[in-house]
Structure to design on (503 residues):
C-alpha cells in the first residue's frame, strides 16, 4: 500500500512537469498532496504513531482542500494568465527527467545502504525534491513558481516522514508554520503582480 | 483446450460490441440518444451488402492489404494471456512478437493509405507513421519493465506469475508501467487525445484518412481490424495490469474478465469526453510522457527492487 502511494506521488509530480495550464497544475498539486497525506496516514496506522496520524490529517485538510481552493480563488480574483508554457521544452524534459532520476538514485545509494527501514523511499523523495526544483526553474510566472515551491514542501515532508521513521510532532508543526508563512507571501506576491500588470 | 477456444470466440464476438459501447456511453454523457450496443454488427452487415469499388489509380495492394491488416491481429489474438487458470495457452511467445505483429498490421494500413493516390491517404499514412514510430520505444520499454516485474519474458507466463504471487515491493514500478501502457492504448487505437475516430475533418483525422478510399467488403475488414486491435490492447491491459480474478472457477473468471474489459472501455470513454484532442505536434509530448514513465518503471525496478 505504501508503495502504491509513493509511486503515485512521484507520478503526479512528473505529470505536473508537463502540464501547460494553470488549473491542471493546481489539480496535480492537489493529487500530489492527497497521495502524501494518505501515505502519512497509512504509515501512522501501521505503526500506531499518533503524531503521524495528526500530521497526515492536517496535511489532508490544509494541502488538499484549503490551499488549492485558495490558489484557485486568488488566481480568478487577480485574473492571472491561465496558459503557462514551461520554459524547458517537453522534448528536453523527456531526456532531463530520466537523467535526474538515475543521478539521484545513485546519489541516494550510500544513504540506502545505511538505512534498513523504508530505505527505498529516501531515493524517491530526493528525486522528487529535484523535480520540484525543476518545476520552479521551468515556470516563468509567479503562480508556477509557487506551485513548485509547494511541491518542494511536499517532497521535504515525504523525506521527513520516511527518512526518520516519523518526525517529532513539534518539527512538523514548525513545517506547517513555515507553510502558513508561504501562503501569506503568496498572497502578497499576487497583489504585487496585480499592481505591476 | 475447450476453454481456450471459448475465450477466443468470445473475444472476437465481443470486439464490435466494446467499440459501440464506448460510442454509446459517450453519447449518453453528451445527452444524446445513445446508439445500440449492436451498432458494430449493423455496420458490418450494411458494409457487406454494399458494392465494393476500387479506384483506377490504385494497384493490386489495395485488394490484398485489407486482409493483411486483419490477419496479424487475428494471429495476435491466439497469443493473448489466459483468462482462466485451467485454460491452455501458448507460452513460447514473448511480448516483442506481439508488438511486431501489431506494427505489421499498421504497416499494411499505411500502404493502403499511400496506394489510394489521393492527398488524404498520404497525409494519413505519414501521420500514422509519425505516431507509431514514437509509440514503439515506449511500448518496448513498458513491456520489458512488466516482464522484469513478473520475472518472465513470455506474456502468458508473466500474467500467471503476476496473478499468483504479486510482487508487492515492486508496486511503484508496476503503476508506472500501467500508466505508460494506458497512454499507449489510447495512442495506438487512435482514441481522442491523439486522434478522433469519429470525424472526417481533414485537419484532425489520422486513421480515417487512410481508409477514406475503401468501400464495401474491404472497409468492413479494416473496421473489424480496428475493433480487434482495441480488444487486444484492452485484454493485455486487463491481464497484465489488473492481475486478479483468474484463480476462480471458469465461468466466474470469464465474467470478471469481461467486466474488466468493459471497465477499461468506460475509462476510455470518460477520457474521450473530458479531454480535448491534442494538436498533432503536441502528440510527441504525450508519447514522451509514456516513454518517461516506462523508463521510470525500469529504473525503479532496478534500484528499489534490489
Amino acid at each position: 500500500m505504501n508503495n502504491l502511494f509513493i509511486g503515485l506521488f512521484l507520478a503526479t509530480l512528473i505529470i505536473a512537469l508537463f502540464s501547460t495550464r494553470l488549473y491542471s497544475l493546481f489539480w496535480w498539486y492537489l493529487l500530489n498532496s492527497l497521495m502524501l497525506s494518505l501515505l502519512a496516514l497509512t504509515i501512522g496506522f501501521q505503526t500506531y504513531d499518533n503524531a503521524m496520524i495528526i500530521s497526515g490529517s492536517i496535511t489532508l485538510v490544509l494541502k488538499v482542500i484549503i490551499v488549492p481552493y485558495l490558489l484557485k480563488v486568488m488566481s480568478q480574483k487577480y485574473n492571472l494568465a491561465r496558459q503557462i508554457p514551461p520554459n524547458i521544452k517537453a522534448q528536453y524534459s523527456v531526456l532531463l527527467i530520466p537523467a535526474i532520476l538515475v543521478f539521484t538514485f545513485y546519489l541516494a545509494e550510500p544513504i540506502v545502504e545505511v538505512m534498513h527501514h523504508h530505505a527505498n523511499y529516501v531515493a524517491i523523495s530526493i528525486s522528487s525534491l529535484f523535480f520540484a526544483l525543476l518545476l520552479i526553474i521551468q515556470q516563468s510566472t509567479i503562480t508556477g513558481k509557487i506551485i513548485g515551491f509547494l511541491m518542494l514542501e511536499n517532497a521535504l515532508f515525504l523525506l521527513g516522514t520516511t527518512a526518520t521513521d516519523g518526525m517529532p510532532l513539534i518539527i512538523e508543526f514548525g513545517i506547517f508554520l513555515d507553510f502558513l508563512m508561504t501562503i501569506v507571501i503568496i498572497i502578497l506576491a499576487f497583489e504585487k503582480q496585480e499592481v505591476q500588470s | 483446450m475447450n476453454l481456450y477456444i471459448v475465450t477466443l470466440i468470445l473475444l472476437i464476438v465481443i470486439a464490435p460490441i466494446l467499440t459501440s459501447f464506448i460510442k454509446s456511453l459517450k453519447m449518453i454523457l453528451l445527452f444524446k440518444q445513445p446508439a445500440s450496443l449492436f451498432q458494430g454488427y449493423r455496420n458490418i452487415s450494411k458494409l457487406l451488402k454494399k458494392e465494393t469499388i476500387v479506384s483506377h489509380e490504385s494497384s493490386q495492394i489495395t485488394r490484398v492489404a485489407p486482409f493483411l491488416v486483419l490477419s496479424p491481429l487475428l494471429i495476435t489474438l491466439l497469443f493473448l494471456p489466459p483468462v482462466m487458470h485451467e485454460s491452455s495457452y501458448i507460452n513460447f511467445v514473448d511480448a516483442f512478437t506481439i508488438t511486431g505483429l501489431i506494427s505489421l498490421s499498421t504497416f499494411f494500413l499505411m500502404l493502403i493509405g499511400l496506394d489510394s493516390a489521393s492527398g488524404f491517404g498520404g497525409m494519413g499514412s505519414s501521420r500514422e507513421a509519425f505516431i507509431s514510430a514514437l509509440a514503439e520505444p515506449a511500448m518496448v520499454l513498458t513491456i520489458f519493465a512488466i516482464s522484469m516485474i513478473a520475472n518472465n519474458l513470455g506474456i502468458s507466463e508473466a500474467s500467471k506469475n503476476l496473478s499468483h504471487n504479486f510482487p508487492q515491493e515492486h508496486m511503484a514500478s508496476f503503476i508506472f508501467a500501467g500508466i505508460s501502457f494506458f497512454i499507449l492504448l489510447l495512442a495506438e487505437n487512435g482514441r481522442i487525445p491523439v486522434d478522433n475516430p469519429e470525424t472526417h475533418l481533414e485537419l484532425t483525422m489520422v486513421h480515417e484518412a487512410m481508409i477514406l478510399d475503401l468501400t464495401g467488403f474491404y472497409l468492413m475488414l479494416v473496421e473489424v481490424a480496428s475493433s480487434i486491435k482495441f480488444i487486444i490492447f484492452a485484454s493485455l491491459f486487463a491481464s497484465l495490469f489488473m492481475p486478479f480474478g483468474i484463480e476462480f472457477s471458469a465461468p466466474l473468471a470469464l465474467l470478471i474478465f469481461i467486466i474488466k474489459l468493459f471497465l477499461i472501455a468506460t475509462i476510455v470513454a470518460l477520457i474521450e469526453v473530458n479531454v480535448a484532442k491534442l494538436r498533432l505536434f503536441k502528440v510527441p509530448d504525450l508519447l514522451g510522457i509514456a516513454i518517461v514513465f516506462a523508463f521510470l518503471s525500469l529504473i525503479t525496478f532496478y534500484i528499489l527492487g534490489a
